[in-house]
Amino acid sequence: QVQLVESGGGLVQAGGSLRLSCAASGRTFSSYAMGWFRQAPGKEREFVAAISWSGGSRTYYTDSVKGRFTISRDNAKNTVLLQMNSLKPEDTAVYYCAASPLAMSTMTHNYNYWGQGTQVTVSS
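-> structure tokens emitted (124 positions)
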């Protein structure tokens, strides 16, 4: 069982930065691939970024955030981070952290555990 709690969301102007943090409970955190997803009002939840289990040597991003967002993990602290730079109004959404016992994935159904989400609002 893994419990996830996101933090770090807020209101920021376009071009600004935010860093989201996801704190995980459970001793097996390092065995899970981790992902960030987002959901804007009226839209489906979409993949943002993922990082492989253990050392987190592999990462993957959706095209719209490549070069702007960076996912990382600290297994000693049971934490996964999403550094978001050069934010755009279209990045506005609720951001969710998720854990998958499978390999790194972009698909929501491959993630067993989800946080409650944190709101990110980017003003123009």
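The mean pLDDT is 94.
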